[in-house]
Specification:
Chain lengths: ~425, ~160
């Protein structure tokens, strides 16, 4: 009678079963943090609480303040690097890319795990059929010291996706359509569970879009059910299914708060209008909204597939407004260098920036002036998110962003075909 | 923490995000430096006009979005004694409780305006609005979150509960 999230939380809590509404203490398999939320905020607290419980479960990634653009940023990155070395944490990366992308790419999460992290997009790890829940830095210090977290078992919303995406339509258009239909508070305090025939064949990188955007729907966690494709990916990487999570499935009679079904076949490309990810409309129906800049990047929008989609659209074209491209990780940068994607982007006039959170965190790498309007693949577009409070941020898939960069205004990318 | 909180209301609308409570350009500031930037993205004059003990009263989904703990840290540093709303972003709520800052859910904040006197009774789970003489029930603060709040935050709670010899 359990949903996938309930099954994983039951195991982590050492109980035969749990139900939505139960409060449980659970043992955490992975604790993750970045340079903004991590050692600088929790190092002293961890010491005060007696030190790390199990350093091997800890993942530290410097992604917000690299490459450092001020001395203050450099000091944060330095402090993070020193703490990770002193504490001998299980995994540490600096300038290799974004935490949430690396957790999946480096196989730092396994199906069936309970993972907590200090950053809202921690939910991304649900792509690997794990329960991934964000907490704050202070609470993470207590989890680092004890291995325990308390959680109220969330009610689950089941989303079944069917069909196949049309040309120039992306996973991001699916999550935007859901946000537009159900809103940013829809999944508040709840678990999202994605299944259906459409997810069967999704790669880990594609699943990340579904889990990552769960937080914009308010979700506590967002999990994609494991399928044969996920099993093949783990086997190809030579990895053991340590917790048996790949065999997990929600029970037939699992108790869902609600069930939704969406056929993705007829979805057009979407945009989210400033200033909220749930203000969504088809990109061809919003009029020719002029943009000053375009940006492709972030944990959800700087994937290999994103850069390839942008390159496919930009092949033989020139951008009319500045387009910056920030690959999520070094491995994506390398892959795009090897397969010619970067050459196509640069030939079209794009600027390629180093891997990391970049402008999506509003810290550096393309922040906006008052009155400027950007279209971006970033995670969210709240007021002030990417710089000035008087700047406007529109969101779209990489194809939609590339099309707007070519046209100088928002346009359905299929109109350029 | 004190079970009875009396303060002035400082009001905001619905859907104020943590990007507005503490904009990203201040993410590089330490916990002891952010109070002056509290609400910088929603009301740049906030830090100057807020008084210690003030209570933020907001519309739906206050603190949605980024999980940056510096958002509630800034509010607490600016002297905010509690936050009242019909609902909160999950992470913002959890961070408030973990820092010992009451984040109180009441169904209805209608009729409360800037400067109104409020009394929050954590024990009785009520919010009293003096100008209208109405008492509004608190919907949350049960179970473990209440225990954490009563311990003044997750660190002291953890020391008591999990690390005791």
């Amino acid at each position: 009678m359990m949903t996938l999230t309930e099954k994983i939380l039951a195991r982590a809590a050492g109980r035969p079963s749990v139900r939505a509404g139960d409060e449980v203490w659970a043992t955490v398999d992975r604790m993750i943090m970045n340079d903004s939320s991590g050692p600088r905020r929790l190092g002293a607290l961890v010491d005060d609480l007696g030190g790390l419980w199990d350093a091997s479960r800890v993942v530290v990634v410097s992604d917000h303040f690299v490459p450092a653009s001020t001395i203050r940023h450099a000091e944060i990155v330095q402090l993070t690097r020193r703490w990770a070395a002193e504490q001998r944490v299980g995994a540490f990366h600096e300038s290799d890319g974004i935490l949430h992308s690396l957790v999946l790419q480096k196989w730092l999460v396994r199906p069936g795990m309970l993972l907590v992290g200090a950053d809202s997009h921690t939910v991304s790890a649900g792509a690997a059929a794990a329960v991934a829940v964000a907490i704050g830095s202070t609470e993470l210090a207590t989890v680092l010291a004890t291995g325990q977290v308390w959680l109220r078992v969330p009610e689950t919303i089941r989303v079944d996706l069917d069909g196949a995406l049309g040309p120039r339509v992306d996973l991001r258009d699916v999550t935007m359509a859901l946000l537009g239909a159900y809103g940013g508070e829809w999944a508040g305090y709840r678990a999202l569970e994605y299944g259906g025939s459409f997810v069967e064949a999704l790669s880990l990188e594609e699943r990340l879009v579904l889990s990552n955007q769960g937080i914009e729907m308010g979700a506590k966690n967002a999990i994609v059910v494991p399928t044969a494709r996920l099993r093949q990916a783990f086997e190809a990487a030579g990895l053991e299914d340590v917790l048996g999570g790949l065999a997990l499935a929600p029970d037939e009679d699992a108790n869902y708060r609600e069930r939704r079904r969406l056929d993705v076949s007829t979805l057009p490309p979407q945009v989210a209008l400033h200033p909220s990810p749930d203000r969504v409309a088809p990109s061809g129906e919003v009029g020719a909204i002029r943009v000053d800049q375009a940006w492709i990047g972030s944990c959800v929008g700087g994937r290999h597939a994103d850069l390839k989609q942008a390159a496919a659209l930009l092949e033989g074209r020139r951008v009319r407004v500045p387009l910056s491209v920030t690959p999520s990780t070094r491995a994506i940068y390398d892959a795009c260098l090897a397969d010619g994607t970067l050459a196509t982007l640069v030939a079209a006039g794009a600027t390629v920036l180093p891997p990391g959170c970049g402008a999506c965190a509003g810290v550096h790498g393309g922040v906006l002036a008052p009155g400027e309007r950007v279209i971006a693949t970033g995670t969210r577009n709240f007021r002030g998110r990417m710089g000035s409070l008087e700047a406007e941020v529109y969101l779209g898939s990489a194809g939609t962003v590339a099309a707007a960069a070519v046209a100088g205004h928002i346009v359905d990318p299929r109109e350029l075909d | 923490m004190t079970a009875l909180l009396e303060g002035r209301a400082v009001c905001f609308g619905a859907h104020v995000t943590t990007d507005e409570i503490l904009p990203g350009r201040y993410l590089d500031r330490g916990a002891d430096e952010v109070a002056q930037y509290a609400m910088a993205g929603a009301d740049p004059g906030f830090a100057a006009r807020v008084r210690p003990g003030d209570i933020i009263v907001a519309g739906a989904d206050f603190g949605a979005g980024s999980g940056r703990e510096s958002a509630p840290v800034a509010l607490k540093g600016a002297g905010i004694a509690a936050v009242v709303a019909p609902g909160f972003g999950r992470l913002f709520f959890r961070n408030c409780i973990n820092l010992g800052l009451p984040a109180v859910i009441v169904d209805d904040v209608a009729g409360i305006v800037d400067g109104d006197a409020l009394t929050i009774d954590i024990g009785a789970r009520t919010v009293f609005h003096a100008p209208s003489g109405t008492t509004r029930p608190i919907r949350n603060l049960t179970g473990i979150s209440r225990e954490v709040l009563e311990a003044s935050g997750i660190v002291s709670f953890t020391k008591r509960r999990l690390l005791r010899p």
